[in-house]
Amino acid sequence: MSTSPATGPLTVGIGGFGAIGQKVAAALDSGSIEGLKLVAVSARDADKARANMAGFQTEVPVVSLGELADRADVVVECAPASVFAEVAVPAVERGRIFLPISVGALLRHDELVDRARRTGARIVVPTGALIGLDAVRAAAEGEISEVRLVTRKPPGGLAGAPYLVENNISVEGLNTAKKVFDGSARDGAAGFPANVNVAAALSLAGIGADATKLEIWADPQVTRNTHTITVEADSARFTMTIENVPTEENPKTGKITALSIIATLRRLGAPMTAGT
Ligand SMILES: NC(=O)C1=CN([C@@H]2O[C@H](COP(=O)(O)OP(=O)(O)OC[C@H]3O[C@@H](n4cnc5c(N)ncnc54)[C@H](OP(=O)(O)O)[C@@H]3O)[C@@H](O)[C@H]2O)C=CC1
Ligand SMILES: O=C([O-])CC(=O)C(=O)O
């Protein structure tokens, strides 16, 4: 049952119990996030999810993605992009705090932002596997002339992306880096729905999905997903790079992603926060 922040902890439901969801759930279960309490999770295979909760202090019910919004004040989405709407729409319609991590899918459902305005929901996009969105948001309060993201991934992490399949681009047997996409964050997020959520998050923090430039490289020299952002603004110029250690459970997903969600949740319940 959900409770208001004035009378008790904010209740949290987690949609998706894989590489990201399990780490976020474990942090909540450990009681280390002040003012927040795990109340439900969702997974495709409920028995597997219950087995993965065996070491938890408190087992919570495994429910459908749509039910999370009935049970929790805060709904965290960390499922495949293909089921994004199943968790996002009820969360926004019920006026919950909604944390999406399949951010590319949010670009394809931008009507949710308008709905949130009407229902009182808040959509809070974590930085995820990227870096520097605090500085991008601050710069966006002034004038930004350019935002560019260059993403380099091990070729295997990109294989099967719809853009590669549709354009007959092979990433097999590469000896040198190959640029496989050069365009807008919006087109990149559509063509690589499981690979460049970071580009979507960057565009939402800055100058939008059409103006944000994106290059994607299949690079046999990298073992980590590597993202470099460059921003040119009237307040500052900056370039930052992050090299993400892959999770064991899903090598496409960097370890820092779950930590970013945990840090975002911590802000919701904290008496003091630091950073923009
Ligand atoms: N914003 C960012 O920076 C980043 C975003 N991501 C994105 O985060 C998302 C999650 O990534 P990750 O945790 O690695 O993925 P995983 O594949 O490890 O986990 C996905 C989870 O979703 C569950 N799931 C699938 N279908 C359903 C359904 N119909 N109902 C309920 N649960 C379902 C799966 O259930 P089961 O376990 O039973 O199969 C699984 O637990 C992806 O979209 C990924 O692209 C990833 C990295 C960075
Ligand atoms: O770097 C990562 O861990 C994952 C990633 O690029 C994304 O999904 O945007």
UniProtKB/TrEMBL annotation:
Zinc recorded as keyword: no
EC number in record: 1.4.1.21
Pfam family, one: NAD_binding_3
Record key words, sorted: NAD, NADP, Oxidoreductase, Pyridine nucleotide biosynthesis
Pathway, per record: Cofactor biosynthesis; NAD(+) biosynthesis; iminoaspartate from L-aspartate (dehydrogenase route): step 1/1
Top-rank lineage group of the source organism: Bacteria
Miscellaneous information on this protein: The iminoaspartate product is unstable in aqueous solution and can decompose to oxaloacetate and ammonia.
Family: Belongs to the L-aspartate dehydrogenase family.
Protein name (database record): L-aspartate dehydrogenase
Organism name: Thalassobaculum litoreum DSM 18839
Species lineage: Bacteria, Pseudomonadati, Pseudomonadota, Alphaproteobacteria, Rhodospirillales
